[in-house]
From TrEMBL:
Pfam families found in the cross-reference section: DctQ
Annotated family: Belongs to the TRAP transporter small permease family.
Claim: Protein transport is one of the keywords in the record: no
Protein name: Tripartite ATP-independent periplasmic transporters DctQ component domain-containing protein
Transmembrane segments: 12-36, 48-65, 86-108, 128-147
Localization in the cell: Cell inner membrane
Membrane topology summary: Multi-pass membrane protein
Organism for this UniProt entry: [Ruminococcus] lactaris CC59_002D
UniProtKB keywords: Cell inner membrane, Cell membrane, Membrane, Transmembrane, Transmembrane helix, Transport
């Protein structure tokens, strides 16, 4: 069980993003073949690809947070010693965590309104709350990843021996 959780922690976003990219490529490939070889366009392919892309966008926020690849001022941070870098990153992660924790209730309300609305997608007829759940999941995963990074950086700050 511990190994499964560790694997999930290390690979969740990557696996989901690869699956999403592969699904989008296959779906659009089928659409191209259907349109240009068989002369019949699929009504659902572009819609499904768009919805997968939305999910991938919100999942990628969590992935970037986990890997610490975001817009940042590297030259400024590089001027500090190890403990200074850790303090700067810890403060940065604190603000990121506050942001995602602030956004989660709004994403929850957005999802609840989508469920109450009962809207379905035009081409496929799936409930739109499947798509509108993406911000909530993305923000929750991002908050978890930021919290993990936050713990790592503050451990570096308070580690014995300083630098």
């Amino acid at each position: 069980m511990k190994k499964a959780l560790q694997w999930l922690d290390e690979n969740l976003e990557e696996v989901l993003l690869v699956i999403a990219l592969a699904a989008m490529a296959v779906i659009m490939g089928i659409q191209v073949i259907a349109r240009y070889i068989f002369g019949a366009s699929l009504s659902w392919s572009e819609e499904l690809t768009r919805y997968i892309f939305i999910w991938a966008g919100f999942l990628s926020v969590s992935y970037c947070t986990k890997k610490c690849i975001s817009i940042k001022i590297e030259q400024f941070v590089a001027m500090f010693p190890k403990r200074g870098k850790a303090i700067f990153k810890g403060v940065n992660h604190t603000f990121e965590l506050i942001l995602f924790l602030y956004l989660i209730p709004f994403a929850w309300k957005y999802l609840l309104s989508a469920i109450a609305n009962g809207q379905t997608s035009p081409a496929m007829g799936i409930p739109m709350y499947y798509v509108q759940a993406a911000p909530l999941m993305g923000f929750i995963l991002s908050a978890i990843r930021v919290f993990q990074r936050w713990i790592i950086e503050w451990k570096r700050v308070f580690r014995k021996g300083g630098e």
